[in-house]
User: Fold these one by one.
Assistant:
Number 1:
Amino acid sequence: MKGVGIAVLAFCAMGSTVAGQQESKRKLIHRSRVTNAPPVWEMMPAHLPFDPVAALGKLIYEDDNLSINGNQSCSSCHFRKAGFADPENTAAPDLFPVSRGSITTLFGGRNAPTAAYASFSPRLHWDGELFIGGMFWDGRATGQDVSGTSLPGAPTTGDPLADQAKGPFLNPVEMALMDKEQVIDFILGAPYGRLFLNLYGPQIYSGGVLDYGMAYNKIAEAIAAFERSSLVNKFNSKFDRFVREQGGDVGTFGVTVEADGFRRFTGLPAGFRSKVFTRDEAEGLALFNADSEVQLGRGQAAGGMCYLCHLTSRHYPEAYSENNVQPPNPFSSDGSYAPVLTDFSYDNLGIPLNPQIAILAGPQAVDLGLGARIDELLGVLADADPLAEIGKFKVPSLRNVADTPPYGHNGFFPDLLSIVHFYNARDVESFPDPEVPDTVNVDELGNLGLSHDQEMKLVKFMETLSDR
Ligand code: HEC
Ligand code: HEC
């Protein structure tokens, strides 16, 4: 997220020492707050109709045969009925925070995020203040290095989603196939092999010889097309109905924005009526949108401050190339999407180690997140400070979040209330030490001043984010 700029700068003017300390810890800007303009960023088309390429992608995505023991597909860990996350994790979040591989004694080191709405993440880039975009908790599928991947109407270019899809087939703790040649041979031999050839034959054969590199890219491209389709990104949650009922934007629902930018919780507007949300759900959204005076050291008013990173304002993706037209958007005429509840930036919430991962996967080194990509980042991004990125993980979309426990990159939190309580009380109650202490965000969370009842309302609000 962009920092909590306006409010904190305002304290500095008021001479608050707390604010002074906060300011020295991080760069503080928040563009969408300054201008009230929605964030706009370069991105891949996020939403495409379900076409033959997406249909092929779905068949590949669901094919168990594409794993060493014939028992695992993408869908095994990103299952529709589990919010496109891992059903073994969601069923027993305490015991299984991380995913089991095709070799069933092997486990990965991170919690499987939802594959839905991932398509909205732009290519990993440095926007002058923050890293934005990419796939995986640490953004390592940057979208910078997929050659030969092209989307309909787009020039050949990198795509983080297709980039990501090339990983799991060959990851030893996931589908564990030998090499890309094996993946391609299995796909050519599958019942849908003919569909693959019909769609891509001329592009993957040159002079009668199969170009395995190109074929692998096409597989990734087809999977990405499925993940961009309306089958995966449904936008049909209770929240979406509420957004429509309220006229299309709930970015400042339940708050007033004061002169210094502080968003004060006002709760339900006078005469509030909704056929969609209960009063608790609506108040939960208002808290989600509200700043906290307690957190900012200037008074008693509580608020969740969640909107800072999990955006609730409309989302305007920008076409990523000059000649690429925005894909048809079934949801609005002005090209906007309902909120995806993330800004795709990175942060360190101070989440403790999850000891359960060591039990399943063996001793773990400290997970440095985005910071572990340091070499790549240094090469590409001159004015970034890579040390500042250690321990940071991508802000996830909260769509379908109630269906995808556990929570956090290491699945430390088994349910929504426990992570909300952590945001609220991290700095005033005792929690185990953060996995990476140096870069913990102390400005925007940790002491929100929420009551238990308000925590519950935030949970109730998040439960409205599940698609049908
Ligand atoms: C064994 C379980 C497993 C399998 C199989 C698997 N994934 Fe994942 N997936 C994960 C985990 C765990 C992560 C997070 C890893 C990380 O961040 O380092 C992940 C991350 C992702 C992400 C990134 C989401 C985001 O918001 O950054 C996408 C998209 C995704 N997987 C799609 C797929 C596709 C497509 C396949 C099949 C080609 C697949 N996965 C196979 C477990 C799995
Ligand atoms: C400073 C940015 C920031 C703010 C403010 C913020 N979040 Fe988050 N949120 C994140 C990041 C980053 C993660 C992932 C952290 C990790 O796994 O290490 C996350 C993860 C989550 C998750 C877990 C999702 C999953 O699929 O694992 C939930 C739930 C969540 N946030 C809800 C909230 C709520 C509710 C609030 C307000 C009380 C809030 N967040 C405020 C950045 C933020």
Note: The chain has 17 helices and ten strands.
Number 2:
Amino acid sequence: MQQFKRMECGRFRAVSQGLCIGGNAHGISGSLAPEVRFLPVRLAIRAFCAVSAQAIRVSLSILAIVVLSASIAGAQQAAPESLQTQTPQPAPKPATPPSAPRFMVVLDAAHGGDDAGGRFGSLAEKDLTLALSVRLRSLLAARGFAVVTTRESDATVAPERRAEIANHAAAQACLSLHATQTGSGVHMFVSSLAPQDPAHIAAWKTAQSAWVTRSLALEGALNSALLQAGMNVTLGRTALPSLDSMVCPAVAFEFAPASTEKGQKPTTALDDPAYQAKLAEALAAGLLAWQAEARQP
Ligand SMILES: [Zn+2]
């Protein structure tokens, strides 16, 4: 019996063993020959094994179909992804470069308040310099400059205070504006201090010595623009308390009445709005050139 069970149910031991035990428990026995007595059991076992094998074959087939279907479904899902990776993607936007700090210009309208400066008939120098400062400030602001002025009204401002304002602004250009009845056209001055190494720590009233070289370069940029505008320009050096204390490229700009023709007596008044507008335009052009030069690596 045990041998028979092993022979018939060798492939599906767990299931057939139960059945074989059951068959035996039903007491199929008697006087019949062993082949006859066990024939129904044998047939049942064969039928069962055949059915089981068929069932397992079917199950395996279903499993294979399920696995195959899953693979196909996975491939179908992966396909759009792979296609997507092949689709040209828009180039990532470059990080917005940090905007350059605004170019700072200090306009110092000389004189003011108790200090009228020069007197030219009914005109006072302090009013002429303030008018040019206000006009130039508007032009520079419209061109994107940051502008700091030492005064916006008829106020008294000490020379030391003017230098303090300019130095606090950390300006890339400082213009001290003056007017005169003497001569014609434009006079520009750079500090008469001897140039010093920028690493040299200078006293307050000689601080400009470390900037004289840059001040001369600024003067050159302004001179080119003024000449381009047809101005008659005279260059020089001078000692001015406010200018000498500034730690930035600094130029004293003085305008005299303009002459219509070189060598002729000046005919354009200092307070002529058209003349002042022409001066402001030329200075703004010079500062734009200076800005471009200063920002070159
Ligand atoms: Zn003056």
Note: The chain has three domains: 4-37, 43-75, 104-294.
